[in-house]
Amino acid sequence: MNNFNAQNTQVLEIKTSKGIKYISQNRIVYIKAENKGTNINLNNSEKVYTKHLLKWYNKYLKSPIFFRCHNSYIVNCIDVECHCSSEIILKEQIRIPLSRNKKQSFKENLILLEKVMFCNK
């Protein structure tokens, strides 16, 4: 996967079973580990399956926008509506588990994201 910057929008080059697909990072809602790969869930309800593991995405999807909230999930924090002690609720009422060990760092990440977003306006 390559990382392109086209007009301040990060674009990922992802290898799928059908070939190479280009995905803008701002279209990613969450990524879920499944079997020996991942499903990338996009904001238009499209799912893209790849053979890459979640840890592979960590070098391309940076915080505070993206956060690995669980062993099996990376979420786009811009899409977070709210959270409680055990789960994150994204737009359209998508529920994602939140690891107990990552709860505090998730809160700190959301605060950092708010500061970054506020300063860029």
Write down the domain tally: 1
Give the CATH architecture.
Beta Barrel
The CATH topology is given as OB fold (Dihydrolipoamide Acetyltransferase, E2P)
Largest sheet: 5 strands, antiparallel
Order of helices and strands: EEEEEEHEEEEEH
Whole-number mean pLDDT = 89
Structural class call reads alpha+beta
| Low-pLDDT runs | 4-8
What is Rg?
A: 14 Å
* Number of helical segments with 4 or more residues: 2
As a percent range, the share of helical residues equals 10-25%
Strand order within the widest beta sheet: 6-5-4-8-7
How much of the residues is beta strand, in percent?
A: over 45%
Give the terminus-to-terminus CA distance: 30 Å
CATH class membership:
Mainly Beta
Instruction: Give the CATH H-level superfamily.
Output: LytTr DNA-binding domain
Report on this structure.
The protein has 121 residues and is of the alpha+beta class. The chain has a single domain (3-119), classed as OB fold (Dihydrolipoamide Acetyltransferase, E2P), CATH 2.40.50.1020. It has helices at residues 54-57, 103-119, and strands spanning 3-6, 9-16, 19-24, 28-34, 37-42, 47-50, 66-70, 73-76, 80-83, 87-90, 94-97. It has a five-stranded antiparallel β-sheet with strand order 6-5-4-8-7. The chain has a three-stranded antiparallel β-sheet with strand order 1-2-3, with no helix packed on it. A hairpin with a 2-residue loop joins strand 7 (66-70) and strand 8. The longest helix is centred in the C-terminal third of the chain and has 17 residues, at 103-119. The model is unreliable at 4-8 (pLDDT under 50).
